[in-house]
Specification:
two-stranded antiparallel ribbon; 10 helices; single chain; disordered N terminus; about 300 residues; mainly alpha
Length: about 300
């Protein structure tokens, strides 16, 4: 700082101009300094946020690509704080686990394991069957998972864009605020020259220099904000597109792994088999065996015909 103030440029030009600025020009410079403080705060915090998002995002994607189950990272308890993709992943995993716990669909599959090498005693070849039961969720329950992923993607995009309005304001408004102070200072300078009835350069130069410092300050505010804004907008757009692509990929992986996508005919068939199997099971265990009616003989037929009235 001592070098800046001791240099001829800053000591002779800026300091002299600020001392000769009008009260309106000094007020404009103070406003621009406050805007610059907010702008640099956003530049530093947002730059650290984007740097951490890229670094942790690479680690998360590397870990996710190495898994076979889309919920494996959440079940292992791994965390990647600062990665927008991980925040989206965790919201989707939490909702999927909730649906698996509260709205499960039991899918029963019977598959053949292997055929025996030798025929059975009857000479017929038999298969060894295995009954596999998996827990999935219905397509309607998966819609809530998809909605939660979309909501998480929007939330992360808004979090990345938070504070960018300050940079855009500094870029667009800084030069104009400085220009306002300059025009105001020049107006005051010419008004003073007119009142003093002296149009010499010596009388006019201090006022003009004091007016121009407002424009210089506005440019000092706008130029760093412009470069930072362009870089950050590009980075945010890339992260957002990566986030949208991952949301679609993650939803597809969850659908293939945990959503019951059986044809409707198969679901109806299994439901009917279950409804038929249940009454037969109850009848075999809880009801007494029915008596078999005796076979009809010729005497029995004659007695039944005599006992039944003849219908016209």
């Amino acid at each position: 700082m001592s070098f800046i103030y001791s240099s001829p440029f800053f000591a002779s030009a800026l300091q002299f101009a600020f001392e000769k600025a009008t009260p309106e020009g000094k007020a404009t410079i103070i406003v621009l300094i406050v805007l610059s403080i907010f702008s640099w705060t956003v530049i530093i915090t947002k730059g650290r946020q984007l740097l951490r998002a890229r670094k942790m995002g690479k680690k998360f994607f590397k870990s996710y690509r190495a898994t076979r189950d889309p919920l494996e990272i959440a079940r292992r308890g791994e965390e990647f704080d600062g990665a927008p993709a991980y925040e989206l992943y965790y919201v989707g995993a939490e909702e999927a686990e909730y649906q698996l716990k509260n709205n499960p669909v039991q899918v029963v599959r019977v598959r053949s394991l292997a055929a025996p090498s030798t025929p059975s005693a009857t000479g017929a070849e038999t298969d060894v069957l295995a009954r596999e039961i998996t827990t999935k969720i219905s397509a309607s329950s998966f819609e809530s998972v998809r909605v939660s992923l979309e909501r998480a993607a929007s939330s992360q995009a808004l979090s990345l864009e938070k504070g960018m309005i300050i940079l855009s304001t500094a870029v667009a408004g800084g030069p104009f605020i400085g220009l306002l102070g300059t025009v105001w200072g020049v107006m005051e300078t010419f008004s003073g020259i007119a009142k003093a009835a002296s149009a010499s350069l010596t009388a006019m130069a201090p006022g003009v220099a004091g007016a121009l410092i407002a424009t210089v300050t506005g440019l000092f505010v706008a130029i760093p904000a412009m470069f930072a804004y362009n870089y950050m907008v590009t980075s945010i757009r890339a992260i957002t597109q990566e986030l949208d692509a991952f949301a679609s990929e993650y939803a597809t992986a969850l659908e293939h792994k945990y959503v019951d996508n059986r044809p409707l005919a198969e679901e109806i068939r299994e439901a009917l088999q279950g409804s038929y199997r249940a009454p037969a099971h109850r009848e075999d265990h809880h009801s007494a065996p029915r008596a078999t009616p005796p076979p009809l003989t010729s005497i029995g037929v004659a007695e039944r015909m005599e006992s039944e009235p003849v219908r016209a």
